[in-house]
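Q&A log
Question type: sequence-to-structure
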Amino acid sequence: KNRRRGKNENENDKRELSFKEEGQEYAQVIRMLGNGRVEAYCFDGINRLCHIRGKLRKKVWINQGDIILIGLRDYQDTKADVIIRYTPDEARNLKTYGELPESTKLSELTSSHLGGGEEDGVLFDDVSEDEDDPMD
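Response status: OK
Response body:
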């Protein structure tokens, strides 16, 4: 086995931001389905079943909430192919350029609100150990 594992060498490379062309659309991943497929909400208002192409499989990890560029199929409107996964910085740039709708929630915003916090509605009483227990 001569393949290197665990080190993502191309992570820090700055790549040119690619915009959508004819037959392509921006989408946000709703959920992962397994077997190289994702369910994505396209910004033209349609939910599509997207297939992760071989070049991206096992090299580019796609998660829920990611912004992706998909290639539409002429013969199947409900299915598409994932072409590119945008990093959070690239997705922010797309939003500032007006390519993505203003209502788009980017992945770093949704992932930070998934964790616990004070907004979860659970309150605890402050109990100190030196108070006498009335049950004795």
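Response note: Residues 109-120 have pLDDT under 50 and may be disordered.
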